[in-house]
Amino acid sequence: MSSPSVATILRDHVSLSTSGIDRLYLNGYVPRLQTSGQLCAFLCDHLGNRIASPAAFGPLHDRFVRDVATFARRHLVPIVQFERRQRKDDVAAQYRARFQGDEGVVFIGVAQERQFSFKATKHITPPHAVRFSFSRQSVAVNQYYYYLHDAEWGPAFIKVGTYVPYPVRVCLNGNEWLKQQLRKEAIAFDSLDNGFLWCADPERLQALADSLSPADVQAFFDRWLERLPWPLTPADRAAGYRHRLSIWQLEMSLTQVFTTPLYGRQFFEEVIRANLDLGRPDRVSLLFPIRLTRRTPPPGLGYKTRVITYGVAPSLHVEFKHSHVKQYFKEQRALRTETTINDPLDFQRTKGLDTLPHLRAVGRQINAKLLEVERIADGAVPAPSFFERLQLPTLSPTGQRGSALRFGDPRAQALFAALCHFGHVPTGFRNGDLRPLVAALLGRNLASYSAGAMTYDLRRLRLHGVIRRLPHTLRYTLTADGVRAAFLYTTLYRRLRRPNTTATRVALPEFPSRLDAALHHLDVTLQDLWSRAKPAP
Asked: pTM for the full model?
């Protein structure tokens, strides 16, 4: 009996599907302490120093250190000095296992790390006037890690720098927040690491995941800001020297629990089999690409993404700008598709906390797109009529003519291989995005493949129904038939016409010429059919 398809597995053999924010890393910065002028105003106008001198930094640092030590003694909180190269998560796990309270500080970690701070340069104006100028530079200073257990968020930590401008990092977990909300509503569930294996009310589970808002994040930060030792006093904060949160990194996960582990293994087998190159190497290439720069030499047969197998548990990785998508078999029970946005500016203009709902929607779209491509690519064969139409010129209802996209034609093959680039999935692609890829695959420099030529090829693809233009934009996206055609053209070309393949050279020495003859016969036949079918002038 044949294995079920990817579409069948995802439709019929998933017992629980949950989409939500996983890990969330935030930057905290003081908007009024970012420039040398703002620092001078803080030291002189706010703190009352006669001159802006680096000597004022010492008392501020020492007070903060004393406050942390006093807090630890008063609340019996351990202070742990992290060793070099020590995994902080492992240390945290040991202390969290011994923590008994419903809420509180588990321990305080201390680590020397680099941060951007202000370095002073002394200037003397004759006869005795002294002043200082400040510049932002990287310095090694102590950082305090407050490892917390929060009633709303569960495990979390806040990292605070001990020197101005007092940078802050906040680490939260959306799935742990979700578990706390389910406990409050007395909804039973079983955990799958930091995700969910089973839930008594799946619809409520997803509704709660969708309800996580910037206000919930800000409330967490404000609550602990008032309870923890802080480098800026209440008087400082009242004067406007408060931290503002921005999004540093966001992980959006989709967890699909299989009814039995067998279907998880079959899912990855089907994905790999549909995109497997000749042979069965340890590292398997899918027809999604790694990140491309202008200096990256073009691969001869298309753009790829890694599928790495550890034993029998494969993981698939794709990249887009600074962000990436990972897909793996979580604890041999669930398919985890996870988009990590390392720089929100990949998708929007700001990093503000208020953009959290938009980034969640972007991550959800990318996860869904990857699964959609995998469904289509599993047996990626377009309808015969669509494939035949690609071999012939086409006319639009308005009379626009599009030349054929014949299989084996170098330019058509380069176009379809470039369309397999995963980078266009999140936001679509423009002329300037696709043009360097096509030029590289044709082995030509960018100047010899002009923007006008790319426009001509985009029109061909659009008239044939391979791509469609996104409304009110200059961006395009693949149609479902376009995905199938791109995978079919590229996979077939790579597997049947791949040069320098030992198996092809030894076992089938005459195969390339025979294939060329068959393709030539196909071309002649299609041209003859077109000549007979087209209307008279």
From this structure: 0.77
